[in-house]
């Protein structure tokens, strides 16, 4: 037996313990009144303010990538003024926060805003805004991104997540698609994902399928389904 095979169970155990510690920390923050809505995705190692979690609000259907930092307090002036500034942070419905972004006190994001990976958000980002940079600045509208990718969905391979999970679609099948298409998509939702909070997977699956069907039904007369074209 190779060293890799011997170490694999240890790696799985370490990953599991790391995940459980991360989820317990999140649960404690929610017990301390950090508000988390329905069907919220929170990846590992998100650094929510541990001192003032009750000032943080995360809206329904939001997604927060790994190693994001959300701060509700700023101690810059403490040494000279003897006080620490505190302010609520609100990530509103349907917003997406990219990996390693930093959100500072007093910021409201969204609804349905997109913050790029690594961005430093020090001011409000309004509805449907896409923002990036340090400090973050709006550079596009989310609605424009949706239209761009909706058009791509109608002309690109779309793989079913269920088929991928049960092996009916192999990695080679996916790789072959890129020989003829610059982009591909996966439709469907997981039956379970440990990084969702307050999740109703059945409802999410139904909503995702309706959105997909609405997307591909536009301008498809005489063309056929996406899976047939893929």
3D structure, described in words:
This protein starts with a helix and ends with a helix. The chain has 2 domains: 3-141, UDP N-Acetylglucosamine Acyltransferase, domain 1 (3 Solenoid); 146-222, no CATH class. A hairpin with a 2-residue loop joins strand 15 (129-133) and strand 16. It has helices at 3-31, 78-81, 142-153, 161-165, 171-177, 201-217, 226-229; strands at residues 35-36, 40-42, 47-48, 56-58, 63-64, 69-70, 73-74, 85-86, 89-91, 96-97, 102-103, 108-109, 114-115, 120-121, 129-133, 136-141, 158-160, 185-187, 196-197. The longest helix is centred in the N-terminal third of the chain and has 29 residues, at 3-31. The chain is α/β, with parallel strands linked by helices and 230 residues long. The strands form 5 sheets. Strands 16-15-13-10-5-2-19 form a 7-stranded mixed β-sheet. It has 7 helices and 19 strands.
Topology:
Blueprint: H1 3-31, E1 35-36, E2 40-42, E3 47-48, E4 56-58, E5 63-64, E6 69-70, E7 73-74, H2 78-81, E8 85-86, E9 89-91, E10 96-97, E11 102-103, E12 108-109, E13 114-115, E14 120-121, E15 129-133, E16 136-141, H3 142-153, E17 158-160, H4 161-165, H5 171-177, E18 185-187, E19 196-197, H6 201-217, H7 226-229
Parallel strand pairs: 1-4, 2-5, 3-6, 4-9, 5-10, 6-11, 9-12, 10-13, 11-14, 13-15, 17-18
Antiparallel strand pairs: 2-19, 7-8, 15-16
């Amino acid at each position: 037996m190779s060293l890799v095979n011997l170490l694999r169970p240890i790696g799985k155990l370490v990953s599991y313990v790391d995940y459980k510690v991360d989820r317990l920390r999140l649960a404690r923050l929610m017990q301390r009144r950090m508000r988390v809505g329905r069907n919220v995705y929170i990846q590992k190692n998100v650094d929510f303010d541990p001192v003032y979690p009750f000032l943080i609000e995360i809206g329904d259907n939001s997604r927060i990538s790994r190693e994001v930092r959300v701060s509700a307090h700023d101690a810059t002036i403490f040494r000279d003024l003897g006080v620490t500034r505190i302010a609520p942070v609100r990530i509103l419905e349907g917003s997406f926060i990219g990996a390693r972004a930093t959100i500072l006190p007093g910021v409201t994001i969204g609804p349905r805003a997109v913050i790029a990976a690594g961005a430093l958000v020090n001011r409000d980002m309004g509805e449907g805004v896409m923002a990036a940079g340090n400090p973050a600045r709006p550079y596009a509208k989310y609605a424009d991104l949706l239209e761009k990718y909706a058009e791509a969905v109608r002309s690109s391979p779309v793989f079913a997540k269920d088929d991928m999970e049960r092996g009916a679609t192999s990695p080679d099948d996916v790789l072959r698609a890129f020989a003829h298409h610059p982009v591909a998509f996966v439709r469907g939702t997981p039956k379970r994902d440990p990084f969702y909070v307050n999740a109703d997977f059945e409802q999410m699956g139904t909503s995702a399928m309706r959105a997909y069907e609405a997307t591909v039904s536009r301008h498809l007369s005489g063309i056929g389904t996406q899976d047939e074209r893929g």
